[in-house]
Amino acid sequence: MTPRDDEPLDLGATELSGAEEDRIRDEHDLDRPDVFDERNAVDDRAGTRSNLLPEEEHAGSADPEAQAREVLRDSDLRTEVPESAPDTMIERRRPEETT
What we know:
By secondary structure, this protein is mainly α. It has a domain at 33-84. Helix content is 47%, strand content 0%. It has helices spanning 18-27, 33-39, 42-48, 54-59, 64-80. α3 crosses α5 (64-80). It is globular. Residues 1-99 are annotated as: Disordered. This is DUF5709 domain-containing protein.
């Protein structure tokens, strides 16, 4: 576990009420990142995703596995709690609307 791994996961700026945010934090283990990580197999997945791309190798990384872990956490958080990314809009269309 890296030093930041025990900090609560950040939802970012949302339009959620305090009570709703508290409910979501509890429901998704956001204040218990070790539980969130275990449930989402973050450590296992980070190990297989920590290989740097050539352009990343050139820039370097002090800890590619920790970097992969943070990216996976962010992705899992946005998947589980879409409200955590209010500035990101997912547009859903029915097949007949795509032409």
